[in-house]
Amino acid sequence: MEARPAVDDAALGREALAVLEANWTGTGTVPAPGLYPHQWSWDSAFVVIGLARHRPDRARDELVSLLRGQWATGMVPHIVFHTREAYFPGPSVWRSGDNRAAPHDVLTSGLTAPPLHGLALWWLYRHTGDAAFVRQMYPKLVRQHAYLTASRDLGGAGLAAIVHPWESGMDDSPAWDQPLAALPVIRYGYRSVYRGVDLDERHPDSDHDRYVWLAMRYRDAGYGAGYLRDEHPFAIEDPMFNGIWLASCQAMAELAPLAGADPKPHSEQAERIRRAMLDRLWDGCFYARDLRTDRLIRVCTVGAFGPLLDPGLPSDQLHAAVEMLESARFMGATGYPVPSCEIRAAQFDRTRYWRGPSWVNTNWLLRRAAAVHSLDHLGQQLTNGTLRLVRQAGFRECFDPFDGSGRGCRDFSWSAALTLDLLA
Ligand code: 2M8
Questions:
Q1: Where does the record place the Mannosylglycerate hydrolase MGH1-like glycoside hydrolase domain (predicted)?
Q2: pLDDT tier at 8, thresholds 50, 70, 90
Q3: Which phi and psi angles does 149 have, rounded to 5°?
Q4: Nearest CA to ligand 1 atom 9
Q5: Relative to the CA of 109, which ligand 1 atom is closest?
Q6: Which of 88, 292, 293, 342 is buried most, with the most CB atoms less than 10 Å from its CB?
Q7: Is 79 in a helix, a strand, or coil?
């Protein structure tokens, strides 16, 4: 495994800030130079969190810039293209400019991403006390949540459905294998967009072709909510997406009074999500539910721990989930936290993207979950293990959970940003 010279905390922090500076385009932070040359939604929310203490000015610009891409429906797109076409699928595929709900002055994708922005705004407020900024952003995030309620509650129980693997942020998670296999493969052959990374570590061409097909089908239906409800072949209630949404609802409840608003609708929404996750996704573990077959997808991934972000999670589920996280199915067997898929699953692959490697962002989310439940020992393990990863291998996209070697691209923004937070 590649070894880096030992760096102390101050030097690591300086390196992290330098990566974020290099990845700042003037209008937003790209997730990684070359590979991801635009602004991605949940990546930006993690950047806001990481910069909250160190560069609050930049954190504010990041969020403002991302939300310039928000649609009139309230949808916050998963990619905002402030720069020319440099990634596939780019603006010419999404054609947001042809859709009346999309913004006029900036091109975007047509999908959304985990709604982490409420939590990110709360994090920023917590570290800056900038209530004026909260007042500015709050109405936009209210509209984001309203979109999820109005257009994504495809199961009718209060959860938001993802309609594409890209919306989960965990593209090739084994949880999407079955629903994806039901889709046709039409050759587009654009996976070569992944420049500078080992293609064996990413999803196969056939999956990428299905991703593109699914995105174009949604586009051709005008990105309509009715189409999603009645016809779209991929609709899944994901515990990580909904756990993040719940955490953002709770954050919005705390921010609401600063914006002169009533916190109650946000707390009620959080309760609805909690109840629905317990009723529909829990069966000894939180699984994703495929709405097209109305079945749980029984593979346990790191997504299973999203509901732990909820301080109100009942103790039975909390204890069972933490036990599983600490067991030999997850961190108990690997040297480093937290594999993206349980290691005893047939689909587990320590080298392949969201099918096994550890990620700084999910480690950070679980550390946040440990904090809300006062699980100090677990929180410390997650912090130390994650810092060991970046100290040894640098700010890589993801890491082998057994030996800690770096995978995917280098100079990855959320790995750098969240390191800053972990060091604080
Ligand atoms: C990955 O997703 C993009 C598609 O959105 C891709 O693979 O091309 C995921 O890791 C996702 O979580 C992340 O937001 C994005 C940019 O870092 O890359």
A1: 36-415
A2: very high
A3: -70, -45
A4: 169
A5: 5
A6: 342
A7: strand
